[in-house]
Amino acid sequence: MTLTPREQAIIDFERVWWREPGSKESAIRQRFSLSTSRYYHLLGRLLETPEALAYDPLVVRRLRRERLRRRRVKFEGRSDYGAKGR
Fold it and tell me: What number of CA atoms fall less than 13 Å from residue 10's CA on the CB side?
């Protein structure tokens, strides 16, 4: 199975979105014609696929790490940043 052009575009966007003028949310709406919640839903599913990992391992691993960090913060109630001993 291979990634669709849209799936590739989503991964490519995540690689460089901060270079876009304006907010990420407006860039998502403009580029993909999606609500941000729908975009993040698609991105979350995409990150679980081996095809996405093969397409751009650095971006996919970074996004997986960020997602894991956000989940830890949500469930533990604190951030890993600024913790003593790190």
Answer: 23
